[in-house]
Specification:
The complex is a heterodimer of chains A (about 170) and B (about 150). With about 170 residues, chain A is an alpha/beta fold. With about 150 residues, chain B is mostly helical. The chains are: A alpha/beta (about 170), B mainly alpha (about 150). Chain A: This is DsbE family thiol:disulfide interchange protein. Chain A: It is found in: Cell inner membrane.
Chain lengths: ~170, ~150
């Protein structure tokens, strides 16, 4: 009897159910993989937020660093700011990209909440953000001493996230 | 004076085309480009809102990407170059139309496989139903006769 064949659709449906269950239950399902990982940091022309001097990809420090995209309009950026201060105190180099923001507001923010950044790139129209495939803030790139992007984290940095990122960051040294 | 201005405006009409996407106006110098812009805005996906294309979404990043697509179109880039530009930065995710590759194979032929599977199953089941009934065995024949007799009496 071929009656068992009738159970195949049920089995297929259950298998799909399991797949969807896994897919939908994934943490960070909004995080898109970046095609820029393994690529050099894109070239750009911009101004430093504080000093106003011209800045390009060549201005990036020649050591492993975090490049953190932030803005004063972004509540999550405020949530992660204290943790960035903490990382900076530990001696980790952080370069900021002030993304689609108002320079004056950004300077005030740094004065009020502390400045964990080596320097900030002012990106008021999001041009550099677009080159980096940024689609929200905060986003953080791991960049090695040669200026190659080694990783990307979407969302805020905190102790739990850093536990995952730190080994990768240490490995870049 | 007014009339002249109106005539001038009318003369200008066929020379420009305007693509209106999500309330934003993008002027083009030819209609073919405006149409391509509309098509691209529909085929490209907003990376922030995930289930909307660039034309539908009013997320800031979608606006930026639309502006970029417009800019690249004005630079006479081909549709392919524009899509490649965005894919290089945002990944294949920005395409509603995924490329045909080994890792996207299931995406492309999955529905076909599912359909073939369904048809196959249907055929098997129908065949089972249409099979000619097996001739009765002697014992069954005898039983049938007996039932008939019992029914008559």
């Amino acid at each position: 009897m071929t009656r068992w064949l009738l159970f195949i659709p049920l089995a297929v449906t259950l298998a799909m159910g399991v797949l969807f269950w896994i897919g939908l239950g994934k943490e960070d399902k909004d995080a898109l993989p970046s095609p820029l990982v393994g690529q050099p940091f894109p070239s750009f022309e911009a101004k430093a937020l504080l000093s106003g001097e011209a800045i390009s990809a060549a201005s990036l420090p020649a050591k492993p660093m975090l490049v953190n995209v932030w803005a004063t309009w972004c509540p999550t950026c405020k949530a992660e700011h204290a943790f960035l201060n903490q990382l900076a105190k530990q001696g980790i180099t952080i370069v900021g990209i002030n993304y689609k923001d108002d320079d004056a507001k950004a300077r005030e923010w740094l004065k009020a909440y502390g400045d964990p950044y080596d320097f900030n790139i002012s990106d008021p129209d999001g041009k550099l953000g677009l080159e980096l495939g940024v689609y929200g803030a905060p986003e953080t790139f791991l960049v090695d001493s040669q200026g190659t992007i080694r990783g990307k984290h979407i969302g805020d940095l905190n102790t739990r996230v850093w536990q995952k990122l730190q080994p990768q960051f240490e490995a870049m040294k | 004076m007014m009339q002249r201005l109106c005539w001038l405006a009318l003369l200008w009409l066929p020379l420009t085309a305007l693509a209106v996407v999500d309330g934003h106006k993008y002027p083009f110098d030819d209609a073919e480009k405006a149409e391509r812009f509309r098509q691209l805005a529909e085929d490209l996906r907003c990376p922030k809102c995930q289930n909307q294309n660039l034309a539908d979404s009013n997320a800031p990043v979608a606006v930026d990407l639309r502006d970029k697509v417009y800019e690249l179109l004005q630079e006479d880039q081909s549709d392919e170059q524009i899509v490649d530009y965005l894919v290089a930065r945002y990944g294949d995710f920005v395409r509603y139309n995924p490329p045909f590759r080994l890792d996207t194979l299931l995406l492309w032929i999955g529905p076909l496989l599912a359909m073939l599977f369904g048809i196959g199953l249907l055929v098997l089941i129908r065949r089972g139903q249409n099979a000619a009934p097996k001739p009765l065995t002697d014992a069954e024949k005898a039983q049938l006769e007996q039932l008939k007799k019992a029914n008559r009496s």
